[in-house]
Amino acid sequence: MISVENLKVEFNATPLFEGVSYVINKKDRIALVGKNGAGKSTMLKILAGLQQPTGGTVSVPRDCTIGYLPQVMVLSDERTVMQEAELAFAHIQELKDSLARMQQELADRTDYESEDYQKLIERFTHENDRFLMMGGDNYQAEIERTLQGLGFERTDFDRPTSEFSGGWRMRIELAKLLLRRPDVLLLDEPTNHLDIESIQWLEQFLATRANAVVLVSHDRAFLNNVTTRTIEITCGRIYDYKVKYDDFVRLRQERREQQLRAYENQQKQIEDTEAFIERFRYKATKAVQVQSRIKQLEKLERVEVDEEDNSALRLKFTCSSRSGNYPVVCEDVAKAYGDHVVFHDVNLTIRRGEKVAFVGRNGEGKSTLVKCILGEIADYTGRLTLGHNVQIGYFAQNQAQLLDESLTVFDTIDRVAVGDIRLKIRDILGAFMFGGEASDKKVKVLSGGERTRLAMIKLLLEPTNFLILDEPTNHLDMRSKDVLKEAIAGFEGTVIVVSHDRDFLDGLVTKVYEFGGGLVKEHIGGIYDFLRSKNTEAAGDRIDAVFQAEKKPLAAEALAPAPESKEKLSWEAQKELNRKIKKLEKQVADCEQSIEELDSAIAILEAQMATPEGASDSALYEKHARLKQQQDSVMEQWEQASADLETLKAQK
Fold this sequence. Notes:
45% of the residues lie in helices and 18% in strands. It has 652 residues and is an alpha/beta fold. The strands form four sheets. Strands 5-6-7-3-8-9 form a six-stranded mixed β-sheet, with helices on both faces. A six-stranded mixed β-sheet has the order 14-15-16-12-17-18, with helices on both faces. Strands 2-1-4 form a three-stranded antiparallel β-sheet, with no helix packed on it. Strand 17 (511-516) and strand 18 form a beta hairpin. Helix 9 packs antiparallel against helix 10. The protein is flat, with a radius of gyration of 31 Å. The chain starts with a strand and ends with a helix.
């Protein structure tokens, strides 16, 4: 669909990349990877038409639509969540208004036999068919499914967008993009503001329902679950692999080893040639041969080896001292804001040295409980006890704003580093993308992401014995995340990690606390043990509700009686009951869609029957009668399915 030919981009006469050519095909799932500053976001902007390259061309077919989600955007505050999402279907609403005007014109005019009137009928018929093919009025259900998939509740739909945080408003923008179904989706770090359930939903959507996708992400699990092709930008060029990210990493290492061998062979050849030139430079009998070798060297295309940081950096947290055996104990802790109960009956015990994860949808109370532990919130009920000699180091998003803007990056870290770690400050800064001249930048000129990384380094070097990290990976590349993960794993103290990054949590935490519905549930095991246990719970139900596509009649067993109380249901029985309910919900939705389509088709026929020619056309009357009969039948099915659905829901 999109063809990139000989692309070149320069900043201050320095090439970012050049000679780049590739094609984006239908249904491609492309991961765009490379170190920070390689040009990934620039490439997305060029594909989106928001930035012009220095040279080369990007060919996009005229009918090809492109959707672009940047990391940062200016958002509107003038609408509700639903109104904002409905903008994705503005073209359908315009068509609907046009049909209404044509229908009114058909009713008002009396020149039934005129050629102009016949053309109006034909235009109305054609546009109405197009309206039905585009989904007509059924897009409302699609909006609701998408918003719920991204974590919104039905009660959020009529709330103004201004009441939501920036992360939630980015979800609205993502929903609008997905609803538009562009031919090519360009996504720059789409998981930064999503929880694990929403990321899983987005993975399913992109893998099964989206058209072509090009995405930049530092979430390794997300890349592996979505993409089937990896394009790496490195050394000003691209390398195109028809594999997912993990396979790319392996193939990239093989390619680099080949490059190293070719580089070493070339260096040996260059050394031999230079030695020959130096040896015979002043011998007249060898002048021609010397000049020939010099020209060979000038024409030689030098082998470049992919950039790779092989430094053996091992960042180690400083554990200040030994804390008590139980750094945090919660007994019947509850917190409410007015009538809104954030959580209640929280009972948990975190032992010294444990590394645990707080997971759950945004707004379920993870950060609230963290603030209770920190003492920033004191008006909770129940008992929360911190153990003896607990020294907490806390990382939150707003800590990036607390840095001293007058200091340089190096000085910021130099002031907190102690002991042998001071000798490795430049290595540490390099691992977190502050290598070279970047370490001498003033804090005041850093971007938001750079400030976040600097705040993280500062925290890592402060002496603590209890770390609480709130979304620590959002602005880190994969190598920096690996460095951080290794440092946390080697930390002798206690750690709470609030994160949605499954790959980061995998192998790091041994216990997961799930926040949801006002409760905090303890799950023993790693993050994937937790996700497997949740496979048939809320996340799976949300995904199934969106992606069921079969239109099957209701099975007889769906109406089988269920046990009297939910408490008495076994896990298998509960699963079966949920399956039957979802079948009925699907049937009700299908019936409603059929009824709307039949209503539109009947309206067209009635408009045609209102003309002098249509009034005498018996075929139109027969077709009208058949459609009305079909409509009555579907209405009966809808009524029966709705009643059965209410019966089953009452048995849950």
